[in-house]
Write a structure and sequence with these properties.
Helix content: 25-40%
Shape: globular
Number of helices: 7
Largest sheet: 8 strands, antiparallel
Oligomer: single chain
Strand content: 25-35%
C-alpha cells in the first residue's frame, strides 16, 4: 500500500467520528388518499360554518300588498306582544281576537280619496318642513313650517280651504276605517275612539333637518304614542308613479338574528290597519323622488285619550 493510501486511511479515521451520511430529499406525495380526506374535511367544515353564519343573520323579504293588486282584504294574524295584551285587556269590548295586520283597497272610495288629497295639498301650501317630512293635523291645527310647527287655524287665508264638505268626507272615511278595525279584530266599534295624533303626511327626499324629519327609523306605535291601540294608514298617492321609495315595512323577527321585512306598496285609496303593539314593528322607507301623501288615523280603547272630530270651519258655515 502506498504512503498516500496509508495517510488517507489515517485521516478518515483520525477524528473518531462516524462517516457522515448524505441525506436525500424526496418529493412528498400530496395526492395520497389521506391528504385528500384531510382537505375534503376542511372544505366541508368551512362550508358548514359559512352557511350557518349567513343563515343566522339573513333577512328575508315578503310583499304583503303590491301596487298591481286590488285587494278586497288581505290579513295576517300575529301573537300580541305581552305588554300590549296586558294593557288592552283592561278595556272591555276592545280586546282583539288576535293581533296582526290587514290591507284593503275596498274601504274608501275614489271620490273620498280625491277630496282628502285636495284638502291635504291645499293645507300644505301654507307650510312645509324644510327636511322633507311634513304633517298637517286637522284636530290641533299643527302644520310643519321649516323646522317648527305653526297653527294653520291662525292663518286667515287658510280658513277658506276648510268647508263643511271636507268635514263630512273626513268623518265618513274615519267611520269606514273604524268599522274595518272592528271587523278585522272582532271588537266593538263603539269601544274604540279617534285619538291624537291623526294627521296628513307629506314625504319627500329632502335632507332631514330635525329629528321629526327622520321618519325611516323602525319603531312601535304604542311606545311612540301611548294613546294608540289600533293604527291605520290611508294612502293618497301611488308608489312607483307619484313617488319612488316610501314603501311601508313591517319588521318581523324570528329568533335573535332572523327577520323578515314585509312590504306594503302605497296605492291611492289603500287602507292598512294593525294593532299598535310590539308585534308590529315598522318603518317607512326613505322616499327617493316625488311626493308621498298619506293619512294616519289612530284609535284608542282608553276614553281618556279620545278626541272629537275636527271642527274646522263649522262656525263660519253655520252662520245665517
Amino acid at each position: 500500500m502506498s504512503e498516500s493510501g496509508v495517510r488517507q486511511r489515517k485521516k478518515s479515521s483520525s477524528d473518531g467520528k462516524p462517516p457522515r451520511k448524505v441525506k436525500t430529499i424526496q418529493n412528498v406525495n400530496i395526492s395520497n388518499p389521506q391528504s385528500h380526506r384531510m382537505w375534503a374535511r376542511l372544505v366541508l367544515i368551512v362550508g358548514i360554518a359559512a352557511i350557518a353564519y349567513f343563515t343566522a343573520f339573513r333577512t328575508r323579504e315578503k310583499k304583503f300588498a303590491t301596487l298591481k293588486e286590488t285587494l278586497e282584504l288581505r290579513s295576517q294574524k300575529l301573537d300580541c306582544s305581552t305588554p300590549y295584551f296586558e294593557e288592552i285587556s283592561k278595556f272591555s269590548g276592545c280586546i282583539p281576537a288576535h293581533c296582526g295586520r290587514f290591507v284593503s283597497d275596498k274601504i274608501v272610495s275614489t271620490t273620498e280619496v280625491d277630496a282628502l288629497l285636495k284638502l291635504a295639498k291645499a293645507g300644505f301650501n301654507f307650510g312645509r318642513s324644510a327636511g322633507g317630512a311634513s304633517i298637517l293635523d286637522l284636530h290641533s291645527g299643527a302644520l310643519s313650517k321649516d323646522t317648527q310647527f305653526i297653527n294653520i287655524y291662525k292663518i286667515p287665508e287658510a280658513k277658506k280651504i276648510f268647508t263643511s264638505e271636507h268635514i263630512n268626507v273626513y268623518r265618513q272615511v274615519k267611520e269606514k276605517v273604524q268599522q274595518a278595525i272592528a271587523d278585522n279584530f272582532k271588537i266593538s266599534k263603539a269601544s274604540i275612539s279617534l285619538t291624537h295624533p291623526t294627521f296628513f303626511s307629506r314625504l319627500t327626499n329632502e335632507t332631514a333637518k330635525t329629528i321629526h324629519d327622520e321618519y325611516w327609523h323602525a319603531h312601535v306605535d304604542k311606545e311612540t304614542y301611548n294613546s294608540f291601540h289600533y293604527t291605520t294608514l290611508l294612502y293618497l298617492t301611488d308608489f312607483g308613479k307619484d313617488f319612488t321609495g316610501g314603501r311601508f315595512v313591517f319588521i318581523d323577527n324570528a329568533g335573535k338574528h332572523n327577520k323578515t321585512n314585509v312590504y306594503i306598496e302605497p296605492k291611492r285609496g289603500r287602507v292598512s290597519g294593525f294593532t299598535s303593539g310590539a308585534e308590529n314593528v315598522h318603518h317607512v322607507e326613505q322616499v327617493g323622488s316625488g311626493v308621498r301623501y298619506a293619512m294616519t288615523i289612530s284609535f284608542t280603547c282608553n276614553q281618556e285619550h279620545a278626541m272629537a272630530d275636527p271642527q274646522f270651519a263649522i262656525e263660519e258655515d253655520e252662520e245665517p
